[in-house]
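Re: beginner question about structure tokens

> Can someone show what the tokenized structure looks like for a real chain? I only ever see the sequence side.

Sure, here's an example I had lying around. Input first:
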Amino acid sequence: MQEQKMSTALLRKCFLAAAANVEKNKETINELNVFPVPDGDTGTNVAMTLMSAVNDVNDAPDNMEEVLKAMSTGALKGARGNSGVIFSQLIRGFTKAIREAGDITPEILAAAFKHAAETAYKAVMKPKEGTILTVAKGMSDKITELLPEYRDDLNGLVMKVIEYGDEVLAKTPEMLPVLKEAGVVDSGGMALMVAMKGIASILTGKEAEVFDNVSLPAKKQETKERHLSTDDIKFGYCTECIILLSENTPSDKVPELKSFLETLGDSIVCVEDDGVVKVHVHTDHPGRVFEKCLELGELSRIKVDNLREEHREVLAKEQQKPLKELAVVAVCAGSGLAEIFRLLGADYVVEGGQTMNPSIQDILNAAQKAHAKKVIVLPNNKNIILASSQAEKNTDGRFAIITVPSKTILQGVTAMMSYDPEADAASNAQAMTESLSAVKSGEVTYAVRNTSVDGFEIKKDDVMGIGDHGILAVGNDINEVSEQMIEKMVDDTTSLITVYAGEDVSDEMAEELRESLTAKFEKPDIDIQRGEQPVYYYLVSVE
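And the corresponding structure tokens:
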């Protein structure tokens, strides 16, 4: 049903649903936690932040001003951890925009989303993209974009914004290397989306399902790749307190405190609201932080957590997990290709390939992170097969490595098509190896020097189309060379041509190639995918 305004009762119910949803799913959020430190407590911190405001919100009179104040003050005073504090600032900015405007219309809601993101960004000393901030900003931008279409449909507007928030969250691993390495989305961003989906359950009339109607990532991406060292934690103590400002505290003292904290640590949040300052910093000197804070007023809710100790506890829990029987490690470069391998069932993706071959130790490390008794490795490059074979001999009996000798990315993708996680290692290795001959591989790249090979005179920077057994086409136009190469790969039995576009190829250019191939070949299906691989303009499989 379309609504033009949000009532006080509906706002209260939405907040309570958001808090309940995060509380219900906090452990799942914890397992995603790798940034800014791998301490596994983001879900707990955000849940405690929201739950601290629940009683205040429940007890607030049926008045918009009072409910908004309860949300903001309750969350700020109960904020815990970096993500919890940022969450409290999102709430603070959101509620402030509404308190100044009155009714919650679609226009006011858009302004509230914008102010929420701006407030959260300002609260963090050094904002980092790929975090909860990015997800909040994405939804803020989207609601402004959608506003003209949904001026009379507040519920529909919110649902569309939540849908877009999921899209932004899915991209966070490409913004933060630590997330990409671990194979997870940002835990703070996930907490925000879990809260938003609690709200969605209310807006769609599914109040009874608020705990069950939450879409979360597949578990296989949650923790199996998170093996960061305690040494990665630069500052050892998560230090927090609330300052009740003295009446005579000068107005410049809070900014001065922020600057001081920056000299002592990182993950700094220092925000003031109605005479209350919330302080959070990761530092090696908690005492100095509290001494400086005392200059501004009385302290309450003092808390110091040992981040290294928390991380050791997380690792200890992981080490107690039983080993899987079988896992797959694939080597590739390019975010699109990595995602394809994961979707096909690969447990771990090692970044590497042409010009950046992983070492034996890299492969051993990846196999260990896959956390299985036996690990099938897909080198996906002829220059990596030997390293994988040597890794087989150096596992110290901790696990076994079986190399399926895929020479190209396309062979690796085909091998994954034959992978059966329910079958044993020997059967899988045999089936995957046999599948390698079922695909023809083509690669389109550029020449790094003048040369003569396979009957072609090649000049530096020429475009080359390379097949399984040598160069098939050379020229100056990427799409023309690609088409010529593919034409030599296709025969009467070909039913499918799959093209993976590299990072230097635009969507428009890839679409032009699709149209050209469709016009040229009547029988085979043409499939274009984003591989985002470096070095190669296109990777092509012909089956």
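Each token stands for a local structural state, so reading them left to right follows the chain. The chain is about 45% helix and 20% strand.
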